[in-house]
Amino acid sequence: MSAGSEETLAVRISRVLADRIVAGEIGPGERLRQDRIAEEFGASHVPVREAFRRLEAQGLAISEPRRGVRVAAFDLPEVKEVAEMRAALEELALRHAAPHLTPAILHAAEEATKAGDASRDVRSWEAANRRFHKLILTPCAMPRLLAAIDDLHAASARFLFAAWQSNWETRTDHDHRAILAALRKGDVDAACATLARHVRWIGRRPAPPASDKRDAFAIHG
């Protein structure tokens, strides 16, 4: 198998495992068994180890001496750290993206917001929410910055699923609309300020009382 195909397989494995972790199908502290995962994907241990490294970089897994690789736990300080990092990096990306945002991109972002408002479950809402952020940030054309933001979005989504998987509430995202209104007026400072405040809301209030999940936090971002 070539180095290129090993890399592609590692990306696919890490994406599948990340989706399972985010959705709560693999819980905090659960061991990621290299042999089983290699067998599932028909892979050697090389792409599986690379997939584990990618999950560690995203903050979704940790490697412990003599204990192997496990799904990372999370707590309120980590939620807040992710929020602060996302706010800073997304504001930077938006400042660089703003000059390149076309009416078509802003329209697509508005449609993503409408899709989120109409969502009947947390999974479809999170997909629409991530699409909105990606649309307005991608034109910054800074791949390393965007990759870091993608990793933080994965961490945010994990907290979101823990908080709202069983207690979803439909919502209207007024912040997304305010960001779009500011961008259409050319007020980049207002758009960036709203985006940063919007993302920092992660972890500001606890999950719904009916939730049976521990250490779960509401997410608005």
UniProtKB/TrEMBL annotation:
HTH gntR-type domain mapped to chain residues: 7-74
Gene Ontology MF, one: DNA binding
InterPro entries named in the record: GntR_C (IPR011711), TF_FadR/GntR_C (IPR008920), Tscrpt_reg_HTH_GntR (IPR000524), WH-like_DNA-bd_sf (IPR036388), WH_DNA-bd_sf (IPR036390)
Record keywords: DNA-binding, Transcription, Transcription regulation
Matches recorded under Gene3D superfamilies: GntR ligand-binding domain-like, Winged helix-like DNA-binding domain superfamily/Winged helix DNA-binding domain
Keyword field contains Transmembrane helix: no
Protein name: DNA-binding GntR family transcriptional regulator
